Amino acid sequence: MDLAFVQSGLLEKFLETDVISAAEVAALLKRRGLLDGTPVFLDEETQMPVPPLCEYGKYLSTALLDETTLKDYGRAVGRLDDYLVNLGSDVLSAVESDLIAYRDQRCRWQERPLGASAWGKESFVQDDLYSFLVARKVLTHPPARLAARGRNALAPQVRSSMDIRHLTFEQYRYYRDVGLGGQLPDARVDVTFRGWSPLRNRAGSDIALGSGTRWREWSTVLLPEIGLWPGMPGGAAEYTVQACAKFGKARTIYVPEDAVASADVFCLLERPEIVRKAARTLERKARDLFVVGEVDVASGRVRGVLDGLVREFQMSAMPAKLRRITVYEDEFGLEALSLFVCRGGLMPGADAWKGYRHRAWTRMTMLADETTPHLPARRWRWHDLRHTYALRLLTYLENMMDGEEPDLRARRRRHRSYLTGYIRHNPLLIVSRRLGHSSPETTYEYLQYTDDLINEFEAAFSSWVGDDEATYAEIASHALAVAKVAR
Asked: What is the pTM of this model?
């Protein structure tokens, strides 16, 4: 079985037929509610659709899943079918032993076995697929039996906790200034540094830490949202994230002044050169872009031309895919409305940001010596900055409420009293709201780490972001001096 995905933007480029026009196909996709990314399953020999599986793809599309999730579901079904074909079976005729063999292959025998979390996602797709096929009477019963209380017997039996990984102050400044910023550990400029746009990457880390947002929430921010737009006063910024938030749950994001200042430095020193070089390329792509002609900061709306039609959007409701193609015209030509841009002049994608941190990690480990902070065993992630934000803020709010209490029993008693106290002043629930967690239960995972961080500053993030007088070299020198005294 072959797998394809709906991609309406490619119709005008590649669909040439006398039977039906590209416009008619695009209109049909809209009428049927088939979103981009909807999986289409084709018979390998005839290239005709496989009706039950294509119906499942349509069912996923009507659930209004985002494009990435739709593709992930389709690939999960495709991988299962590819494996079953080698067993002389397929998705529609599989039996329980086939699914058990597939689980063992994925979790035990393949070169890089899946962990419980990754397999849990694949198991969920299988359960969802067969539940759909039974509901539509394509199958009389699911191939795998149900466990107690209707649970999926092939799902992971052990529930894994959150993988919370946070940074110390010294680690963060080393990551940001040396790994991303191209400095040497002694704060000198590394003339051999071949990284591209270090100020952009440093600004990204400052905003990620200062706002505590997920990667998709901070990397897709638009210039008017973060206050770097003509006529806006500057300073700290607040904006609403919704379409780019997890589960589309709207909340207000606060970006501190120092983090905005870090982004402003990028906009002054690096961004103009990037957009100037990419302007001609964007002009050639203008037909495929959302060209904004009006930005209403007060209402948070933008108005422009998309696909030849005048469209107006609330910025918070713009998904990442639309934000990536949103541009406006300035003195150099077309320029991206997003804060972060890459060589093509548009917003960097997930693979680009992944590459930035991978190269930063390689550089950090290569330059690590006795003056640098201890590096974790596993490569750092952008999400580690969100965890660091949560732990720093939670520790700070606790200490503001009751002061530093060394007695473990007293700290535990304090947590219990908070949960029965006034919700507005509960540090745990404040952090939960700021992180956008669906349930405070998720935030509880951080409690076991709040005793690990040293509260050294008058404010939670004093001197973490921005460019004040505390360079990494000064921090390292101070750490060495303390270590010598301790000896």
From this structure: 0.77
